[in-house]
Specification:
The complex is a heterodimer of chains A (330) and B (608). With 330 residues, chain A is of the alpha+beta class. Chain A contains 11 helices and 5 strands, in the order ααααβααβαβαββααα. In chain B, helix 4 packs antiparallel against helix 19 and helix 12 runs antiparallel to helix 13. A two-stranded antiparallel sheet of chain B has the order 1-2. The chains are: A alpha+beta (330), B mainly alpha (608).
């Protein structure tokens, strides 16, 4: 295999540069370890830029325009735990290599890869799609009194909280020509099937009909003032909202609000990092010449590679440790 | 001992070493040797040649704009029809004159190309790649494959950015700063959200930034890990220090712009509102495409958090080059080498906390403005230490005025002028008046054009013999230098006069519409445009000299300038792996004219 590569890509057989494997005595580092720390410094600045944007936009947001409690906290907690476990197993994998136990290395690396894969799968096949089927309508301020039953602003004013301008839930009927018509039709069928009610679709052509979330069904209930750990069932209350009263309406996609824009951009970029980590781990786990193929000729080199990939993995984990509280809990 | 040093400069050695270099790698074909190479010298050349081409291209864009400013609405002479056929009807009228949209396209692309595709690739990646490993006695960069990857990231961004001229509506037209909401809505009305100038600009910048990040990580690691035995920190040539700090600036300042680039990209293609404010009016109505809630000021913060350190990325490598050339041609050590090293570090640190002086017009409030005024004035201290040290280095030297030295000497007053004219701009009250006038344009062009670019020319003339084994023509070099020096001042000095009169930097007709204001200084437009045309002619002399000297220049040996640093201790041109002997460094980088020593220079590897 490596002969084949070197035949067609002779550049990969280039002359050895010092300190690729052995540490330089005065710095105590092999080059890649220094390189990965510098790379992580730049990554800190990259995510730092995004988190600063989060802070800047959140501070600048008008009262009531920064949603909270819309994400699934138990699932997020589970994903946090999975990433932390994988950060531990990758250290075990590295330690196993240092002790020259190839079998253990393969096992721990496999667990790490699986953890990463589970994290991504949960994110992409459950969390994100659930958001894309969740709808929010921001009501114009001058029309808010009409929808007081769903917004509960009197209660919020008395208790000294930010006003609420948004009604969220599942979209059952959309105004004519809306790009969400198909999604609404699907939800309405589901609603009819579950409840036996067929009143969700109104004949009016400029109404949104929303099967509202618990918080909008009962907005004056003190219990709803704070987000809940366990997500609540969507109520069976329907809100009919005239399009004229709507400031903006969108599924929970990046265009919904600056909150979801930062959420999707940061978790998307974080997801790409997880994917990158998984690919590198797979390469180091499979018998490629630069993966476990290296074990026979230069096990220390392989251990170094696992170490720096692991450092990257810890960083990806650390980013998530920031993402989780600021998006899920705050 | 001295006999060894002088023998090293002989022709005989050069030819022998050439054979030695080929002996190691007879199997490399053209593609592997010159295109998909991992050798730092080849990659440095790739960067330098690509970057120099873009510098010339960016200059030509400016030339068309200058024509428009001096003769508004007149067809561009000679090449008007050609430009019309290349750039299309958005940019050029059928008669061959620049349109208003075309003026904006050329303006935005001139800035983008000069900064990100011209100077940084030549100064940082080109000279850095070729010279740094040689000066620290390393066989190559620490990560040769990563080095190749960074060049190909950069090259991809070049292709994408150049290609953006040919999409409907032409290239980006919202300034090199790409301020939203203008940049956020540019070309979206009725156009393809992906296939338009601004979106492609963002995509190209993401590649450019990625390449730059990989490269700078490589530089820092190389300088820390691969120094030759005995080459302690305070024995490093100043050029290496300059590149070291520059690389740190790139590693830490570029990622926030990459993040901002992603955000503007999603604003354009996914309808997010990072930079789109609530209630944004487009034409007569409120924009419905965005949810609102974003902040255009956020972009300015993220952009200038990069772009101010970027100013030092543009200037530090040039100061490094000038230091090498000055020390070598004054035949004496750099004055205050240690002070210069400390200054460059302080400069690097301070450059991260001055960015908002670009944003005084945003209404940030007196307290915040006061903070940034103070830091901005503070940063002039290390800058002045650097410049003064270089001036002091000239004192009492028996100066050799060869072409590199001419450019290096001219760099000092030109950079000084650019720096001094920046001081008034640091003050909020003055800046409110001068902001976005030609005064600002004159100020930063003095820093980067007769400043940085003259530094780069000094570097090209200085290291050309090491790269090719031949010197460039001194006569043509002198013609190039004197012609460029006079004409470049003819372009930029009148800008101060126009700017103080209030001429705005983005007027498409050079100020004719605002004749009451600009009238007394309008005639300078013609002076500047003629100077720019003449400057172009003198660059043709350089291009001619650059290519003909490759085959016809005077042949030289290892050390044609009698220099002390390790880059002149290799065969000429250096083979793969660079050095033909084990290295040991015994002394500092600039031991020139040491009393009692038979020659006026002692190479760093010479043990006395």
């Amino acid at each position: 295999m490596s002969n084949l590569i070197s035949k067609y890509f002779p550049l990969f057989t280039d002359k050895e540069v010092p300190h690729t494997v052995q540490a330089r005595p005065d710095t105590g580092l092999y080059s890649a370890k220094l390189g990965i720390w510098l790379f992580l410094a730049s990554e800190v600045m990259l995510f730092g830029g995004l988190f600063s944007a989060y802070i800047f936009l959140r501070i600048g947001a008008e009262p009531g325009y920064w949603p909270s409690g819309l994400l699934n906290v138990p699932v997020g907690t589970m994903n946090t735990a999975i990433l932390i476990i994988s950060s531990v197993t990758v250290v075990f994998a590295w330690a196993a290599l240092k002790m020259r136990q190839l079998g253990k290395y393969r096992l721990y690396m496999l667990i790490t890869i699986l953890c990463g894969a589970i994290f991504l799968t949960v994110k992409l096949s459950y969390e994100w799609p659930a958001k894309f089927n969740h709808f929010g309508v921001f009501i114009k301020k001058e029309s808010a009194s009409k929808y007081e039953a769903f917004l509960g602003n009197k209660h919020l004013e008395v208790t000294g909280q930010n006003p609420r301008w948004e009604i969220t839930g599942h979209l059952l009927d959309a105004p004519k020509g809306s790009s969400y018509a198909h999604q609404a039709e699907h939800n309405a069928e589901h609603f009819a099937h579950e409840t036996g009610r067929h009143d969700a679709v109104t004949p009016a052509e400029d109404d949104y009909v929303i099967q509202v979330d618990a918080v909008n069904a009962n907005p004056s209930d003190k219990d709803n003032d704070r987000p809940h750990f366990w997500p609540r069932e969507t109520s069976t209350t329907l809100a009919v909202i005239n399009a004229k009263d709507v400031e903006s309406a969108s599924v929970f996609a990046p265009r919904h609000s600056t909150y979801f824009a930062t959420y999707f951009l940061i978790t998307g970029l974080h997801g790409l990092h997880v994917l990158g980590g998984i690919l590198v781990f797979l390469y180091l786990w499979l018998p490629f010449p630069g993966g476990t193929g290296l074990y026979k000729t230069n096990p220390e080199h392989l251990a170094n590679r696992v170490e720096i990939a692991g450092l990257f993995w810890h960083f990806v984990d650390l980013v998530w440790i920031f993402v989780f509280p600021i998006f899920y809990l705050l | 001992m001295s006999t060894i040093a002088t023998a090293d400069t002989g022709h005989h050695d050069a030819t022998k070493e050439h054979g030695h270099g080929e002996h190691h790698h007879p199997e490399l074909g053209f593609l592997q040797r010159w295109v998909f190479s991992t050798d730092h010298k080849v990659i440095g050349l790739q960067y330098a040649v690509t970057g120099l081409s873009f510098l010339f291209f960016g200059f030509l864009l400016m030339l068309v704009m200058r024509w428009q400013l001096a003769s508004p609405g007149q067809p561009v002479p000679m090449v008007g029809a050609f430009l019309r056929s290349v750039f299309g009807q958005t940019v050029m009228t059928d008669a061959g004159a620049l349109t208003a949209a075309g003026y904006n396209v050329f303006g935005a692309m001139h800035g983008t190309i000069m900064v990100f595709f011209g100077i940084v690739p030549v100064a940082v990646a080109g000279f850095g790649n070729f010279v740094v490993p040689l000066q620290i006695g390393a066989p190559d960069m620490a990560f040769p494959k990563l080095n190749m990857a960074s060049f190909w990231c950069f090259f991809t961004s070049c292709v994408i950015m150049t290609g953006s001229f040919f999409v409907p509506g032409s290239a980006a037209k919202s300034g090199w700063t790409a301020y939203p909401p203008l940049a956020g809505i540019a070309d979206l009305e009725g156009g393809n959200i992906w296939l338009n100038g601004q979106t492609i600009w963002l995509i190209a910048m993401v590649f450019n930034i990625t390449g730059s990040l990989l490269g700078s990580i490589n530089f820092i690691t190389t300088i820390i890990q691969l120094r030759a035995p005995g080459l302690t920190w305070m024995r490093l040539p100043f050029f290496v220090w300059a590149q070291f700090v520059t690389a740190f600036l790139l590693v830490l300042a570029f990622p926030p712009l990459e993040a901002a680039g992603f955000m503007q990209l999603t604003d354009r293609v996914l309808g997010t509102s990072f930079f789109m404010p609530t209630g944004l009016m487009i034409g007569q109505s409120v924009a419905q495409t965005w949810s609102g809630g974003g902040s255009p000021i956020l972009w300015q913060h993220l952009f200038w958090f990069l772009a101010h350190p970027e100013v030092y990325v543009l200037i530090l490598p040039a100061i490094g080059i000038v230091s090498e050339v000055v020390a070598n041609n004054t035949r004496k050590p750099l004055h205050g080498y240690k002070a210069m090293v400390y200054s460059v570090f302080v400069l690097g640190f301070l450059s991260f906390i001055v960015w908002a002086h670009h944003m005084y017009m945003t209404g940030m409030g007196a307290k915040v403005a006061a903070f940034f005024q103070v830091t901005t004035i503070m940063i002039s201290v290390p800058s002045v230490i650097l410049l003064t040290s270089l001036l002091m280095s000239l004192w009492g030297g028996s100066i050799r005025f060869n072409t590199p030295m001419l450019f290096a000497t001219a760099f000092l007053p030109m950079f000084g002028l650019g720096g001094l004219t920046g001081i008034p701009l640091a003050f909020n009250a003055v800046d409110l008046f001068l902001h976005d006038t030609y005064y600002v344009i004159g100020h930063f062009h003095y820093v980067v054009a007769p400043g940085t670019i003259f530094g780069l020319f000094a570097g090209v003339y200085f290291w050309y013999p090491k790269v090719t084994g031949r010197k460039m023509s001194e006569f043509l070099g002198h013609v190039h230098f004197w012609g460029s020096l006079i004409t470049i001042n003819g372009i930029f000095f009148p800008m101060f006069l126009q700017g103080m009169a209030g001429v705005h930097r983005r007027w498409y007709d050079g100020g004719v519409t605002y004749e009451q204001l600009a009238g007394p200084v309008l005639h300078w437009n013609m002076v500047m445009t003629v100077s720019a045309g003449l400057l172009a002619l003198f660059q043709l002399v350089f291009i001619w000299n650059f290519f003909t000297s490759w085959k016809l220049g005077q042949k030289v040996g290892r050390n044609p300038w009698d220099a002390t640093t390790l880059d002149w201790d290799t065969p000429t041109p250096p083979p793969h792996g660079n050095f033909d002997k084990p290295l040991m460094v015994y002394r500092g980088p600039y031991e020139y004219s040491v009393p009692g020593h038979p020659t006026d220079f002692i190479p760093q590897t010479e043990k006395v």
